[in-house]
Amino acid sequence: MNTYKITLLALLAALAVVGRFAFAFLPNVQPVTSLIIVCGLLLGPLAAVLLAILTTFLSNMILGMGIWTIWQVVAWALIGLLSGVLGKYPRKIPGLILVIIAVISGYLYGFIISLTTFSVTGKFLPYYLAGLPFDTYHAIGNGVFMVLLYPIIAHFFRNYAEKHFNLQNTN
């Protein structure tokens, strides 16, 4: 990973942390998951995992750390890995598929976060079912953020990358 990619990663981390605070008034609606997916698609799985770790720890320094922090890292890192692997395919991914991936990632994130309660109390199903409306907010938010953010970020990344490095997927 060269300094140009690290710079982009730092910018994405700043955007994700600020976005997490900016949308705090909406339950479970935040751009973090979509940014991690975009990062994985364009910069690769390693960059997406690093973004997941950076975003989680930087934002939780202010929001508060807890047992959920580890599960947030696990959930976002897994989403980043999956999108990074998907981004390695040289074919263009249609926008609708990206939105579907973002929506599914919202539910995957919620499922993994629900494992926190299982690890503490042993009761998974009631907690997971109670959280499904919030997972739905997260999923819808991911879809909207993907529609809004992906074209803009991909455009700027393409222009920047032409001079410094190759993107792995240039949708």
UniProtKB/TrEMBL annotation:
The keyword DNA damage does not apply. Keywords: Membrane, Transmembrane, Transmembrane helix. The chain crosses the membrane at residues 6-23, 35-59, 65-86, 93-116, 136-157. InterPro entries: ECF_trnsprt_substrate-spec (IPR024529). This is Energy-coupling factor transport system substrate-specific component.
